[in-house]
Amino acid sequence: MHTARLGRTRANIEIDERVCFTVYEMGRLLPAAAALNFSVEYASLVIFGTATRISNEKQATDALHLLLQKYAPHLQLGQDYRAVTPEELTRTSVYRIAIEEWSGKKKEVPADFPGAYTYSY
Question: Please, where are the H alpha helices in 1-121?
Answer without folding.
Answer: 8-15, 57-71, 86-89
